[in-house]
């Protein structure tokens, strides 16, 4: 295994660049959503349609879904607000329509999903996943979300979805080049993509206590067992490397 | 805005049928779609020709099915321009039309659905035990608490949500899609709110046990408990079905 500190740097930088690109694309939607909510205390679901041009700009390349999702009782005319669009491969994006009626048998409460609760509770942007996004893509997904504020209070999130398999396609070559065992993991230690079958996507890395490392500040470290951990830029994704 | 479940559940509702020419099968699909709320009140159904194409049956078969739906009061037909078949969502979807569904389904079909559901949900529970993170377990425990407090249609939804969360915690898009598909067709019958009151407490206890096994990482136990849970649901349904058939 290439043991030099710089060996993992290319991967770390590639991940960081990917992350910043996606969050960068969300900035106009964030500005649009906050502007819309600030301008009117009675914003309605219909008003959210004004965000469509900015949302459509986010779609494309890696991003397969994007939009704004409001916190309960942010809109004047309905309890929940969902302005979300997906790439279809055709010319036109398709709107995602889910049951927003709490009394409906098919209502699924999105306010329990981490892509919603973490920005709400921390006030910070978040990447949720890899996870099975049964509300939207039905695929193994990474969801990027940023909190939206109105009068200093949490009013919802703007977000973007990326398929895990697309991230794998992008990052796998540089990971393979590292040799040894290398995996990109989230804050729970769940593998997003790796260069070996043992650390399969979706499995939890147990040889290292990744959650503890995150809570302690996620500084670069080499463990007693010889595993190297390094955070990728300003993201909740880390590179874990070890011998075979 | 039209209400609906996820995109895949909607597609599953209108996927081609296995056997051609069975008006009953078309009726079942549409009854499910209407009573599950996948088709909204006053929503216009696709034309007879479109339905026939989507289900892979003849228009005659579709017409037979529409007659049955009109008789059950789930659809009304308007003639002339802007005419067609329009959904009439029953005020109390749970009781009446589910009993009709349970009466017409055969015991062997029920058993088959149970086998399929058991295979999917059992496997998902085992994988969830192996792959869950503390966040996944927290969501499962929330879903379990919902089962305790819910009644009627809410109880049905809480049950479905729990099993959906297990499949998602298993980190498997395929199993999750299977779960959604099963829930939106016959599998939805498993979680009918048919209780006498005692069953609610049992359901809660069963789910707590499954969630605990998953939290402990005991895959075999999680699978076993899930299979037993589903077998019991099928047995309950079979009893009601037979009662409904009794002269």
From TrEMBL, chain B:
Transmembrane segments: none annotated. InterPro entries: GntR_C (IPR011711), TF_FadR/GntR_C (IPR008920), Tscrpt_reg_HTH_GntR (IPR000524), WH-like_DNA-bd_sf (IPR036388), WH_DNA-bd_sf (IPR036390). SMART domains: FCD (SM00895), HTH_GNTR (SM00345). Gene3D superfamilies: GntR ligand-binding domain-like, Winged helix-like DNA-binding domain superfamily/Winged helix DNA-binding domain. It comes from the Bacteria. Residues 20-90 form the HTH gntR-type domain. Keywords: DNA-binding, Transcription, Transcription regulation. The keyword Transferase does not apply. Signal peptide: none annotated. It holds the Pfam family GntR. PROSITE patterns: HTH_GNTR. GO terms for molecular function: DNA binding; DNA-binding transcription factor activity. This is HTH gntR-type domain-containing protein.
